[in-house]
Amino acid sequence: xxxxxxDPQYIRDNYEYMYLTKDLKENTYIFNTLLAGNNDVVxxxxxxxxxxxxxxxxxxxxxxxKSLVAHNVLFPLMIETQKIDENPGTxxxxxxxxxxxxxxxxxxxxxxxxxxxxDDLLSGETVLLIDGIKKALILSTKGxxxxxxxxSTTESYVRGPKEAFVETLRINTSMLRRRIKHPDFVIExxxxxxxxxxxxxxxxxxxxxxxxxxxxxxxxxxxxxxDGIIDxxxxxxxIEDNPxxxxxxxxHSEKPDRIAAEILEGKVAIIVDGSPFVLTVPxxxxxxxxxxxxxxxxxFLSSALRVLRIIAMIxxxxxxxxxxxxxxxxxxxxxxxxxxxxxxxREGVPFPALLEALFMEVTFEILRExxxxxxxxxxxxxxxxxxxxxxxxAVQAGLVSPAMVIVVxxxxxxxxxxxxxxxxxxxxxxxxxxxxxAGTLGFFGIIMVIMMVLAHMASLESFxxxxxxxxxxxxxxxxxDVFMRVPWWAxxxxxxxxQRKNIIRQEDKRG
Length: 511
Fold this sequence. Notes:
By secondary structure, this protein is α+β, with helices and mostly antiparallel strands.
């Protein structure tokens, strides 16, 4: 008597815990039930060997490489298996012969749980079910279309590697493997997301990375319970130490060379399938105004550029506030000739300096956002021409003074010099708070807000590492790679704040 097929609703509710049976008809019925209505799912019924053993090949058109399926799976199974002798064995023996002799795919796995088989099928693998066998062959045939490796659009180098990560996980891991060729370099995989089941990889060097940091990363990733992960930004918000802080506590980059360099320092990288941005932890504030190119140019040039970026960072944060405070409360601090010139320019302006600055800053931010959202060919023209036209028109209309236009323009340009986009956004937000404090309390308000911000930053940690290290707590040895960069031959030790397992980077042979 034929076995009764399971109820469809029961299958949909419990398939993750069900196991394959020996009945090919029942197994294909289960997968048909789960994938009903999907026109891109291919069920290919075939016969294997001279005994014409029924089998079924299942794959998803668009995720599996059809050429690979045809030449490395279908052809050997349907043609080459005809060469099996009259007694090829039965059951597991026959299954093993098919796996070992007639499937010419590089990676073949065996699974018996329907939930696991379904996950692999929906990830682009091909599933082979054979009648009389309670197991399935999982054939690695992933081959969907993806973006080719190209130059980064967010991190531009004059000197250094040009290639950037793409949206395919295995391509990204291969770019890291090319740079770190050591057996201690480990890449662990996991899936996150109830419905998306996104592949996430953790990359680290086990002889360098701090074990506590590594275990904490795994712990936080395993706690994520969400429907789907679309980009690495989802994970960043889930695992950062202080989600209410405006400062980023996890670094990200789309440059393989930069991620590889951070892994060599003892950090842990988190790679998310579908995202070209790779996360690294722990992160400290100092690294956000360091560009990857700093390590490719000669050290004294890189040090000079870092000082320039620090000046730009201070300008982007404080320049409008200082102007507002001096013109509103502290006119005696302005040189006489300059004070007379500013007073003459502001004679017809009906608004106080604070409202004048807020108007110009908001206008500048709107233009910047419009330039990003519009098509590339139009966006640059809108942001540049719009800024010139609106600034000139506002001055002629007497709404703002020419000095304020210069202050806002210099502030905006300075913010572009900050390498990390997420930190630049944070400074843009803080700038408004400091401007309001300057317009109400003068320099006292500026100092008060700055002290509050510094106190907040000093309280932050990223996976157990103080956010302001190595500035505070001060580590003189590591300060050689903060405000300036020493030559590579002088970088003997890795940062102690990141890890303490293996701090020797190279032998000191200068003596």
